Amino acid sequence: MTEFWLISAPGEKTCQQTWDKLMVATTRTNNLSTNNKFNIPDLKVGTLDVLVGLSDELAKLDSFVESVVKKVAQYMADVLEDSRDKVQENLLANGVDLVTYITRFQWDMAKYPIKQSLKNISEIISKQATQIDNDLKARASAYNNLKGNLQNLERKNAGSLLTRSLADIVRKDDFVLDSEYLITMLVVVPKINYTDWQKTYETLAEMVVPRSTKLLFEDNESGLFSVTLFRKAIDDFKHKARENKFIVRDFLYNEEEMKADKEEMTRLSTDKKKQFGPLVRWLKVNFSEAFIAWIHIKALRMFVESVLRYGLPVNFQAMLLQPNKKNMKKLREVLNELYKHLDSSASIIDASMDIPGLNLSQQEYYPYVYYKIDCNLLDFKV
């Protein structure tokens, strides 16, 4: 994905002139960036005190909403599991890809009416993002529980013969059932010990039924054998078997229990499939909502900061730059050259320098108003 620089500079004689100057400096001769005008409507300015307070609040809200956007995107990737390459096509804003949405940004008058104060608009966004965040926690928790329970059952059905469920392996006619004296036991025997097992199983205890062993199932390492013996010999048989590296599985054939296990697996699998579609739809819709809210916060911050920096009447041009990756340093130099007259102190301080006591590397201060919009929303590359 992509990084954008959202900047503003005061209107010269007209805002168009400001725009033309930027275009000449960054694209006509040297292809440093791809630029678009960023349309911010005529918002209500309010008092200077309110603007100063809002400047801090909006910075916090920006971070919070960005974190919500990233959480929804990341959870979408988690839910899509094996189809992670499909994540990007589901991360849309207003039905278009994120780059298109940002570069053609239009303020949403219905969601965020500009007749309201800046404070009210920021509160609408804050409530909306908090709601999405809370809903995501609840939905993710429910779906993750379901997924976790299903994975545990699947693990039980797919582990080694020492631990896995035997419900799909054994059948009723493998066992002597309802006998007062006899019992069928199940023994896990490593493959390299098959011959030893056949030679010795009848002598591991006094009351083993001759020729009663049968190989029921094998995996890569071991085989599951049945053997029938008298109940009174169980302890003796287990002890001797262990000495010979044969492991007796504690297993009682119970049709009801095995049926319940299978039904639980089917139920969880069906529930997961049922929840998957609506959950992905919810994530798509709310990713779009959160992302749109986030870009509107950037617009609000751009408006507030530009009025605080450049004064009234409102007269500035907001511009969206998509830097050419190889020329970022050069682009920064050209912008500083273009706008250093706006704030002589800013050009002295390079944000990349580490000056003790000045925490500037975090907030990147330039003579023009600047915000970064980073569309790399996922922890992994698809």
UniProtKB/TrEMBL annotation:
Keywords: Acetylation, Hydrogen ion transport, Ion transport, Transport. One of its GO terms (cellular component) is vacuolar proton-transporting V-type ATPase, V1 domain. The keyword Acetylation applies. The keyword Transport applies. PANTHER family: V-TYPE PROTON ATPASE SUBUNIT C, V-TYPE PROTON ATPASE SUBUNIT C 1. V-ATPase is a heteromultimeric enzyme made up of two complexes: the ATP-hydrolytic V1 complex and the proton translocation V0 complex. The V1 complex consists of three catalytic AB heterodimers that form a heterohexamer, three peripheral stalks each consisting of EG heterodimers, one central rotor including subunits D and F, and the regulatory subunits C and H. The proton translocation complex V0 consists of the proton transport subunit a, a ring of proteolipid subunits c9c'', rotary subunit d, subunits e and f, and two accessory subunits. This is V-type proton ATPase subunit C. It comes from Channa argus (Northern snakehead). The lineage of its organism: Eukaryota, Metazoa, Chordata, Craniata, Vertebrata.
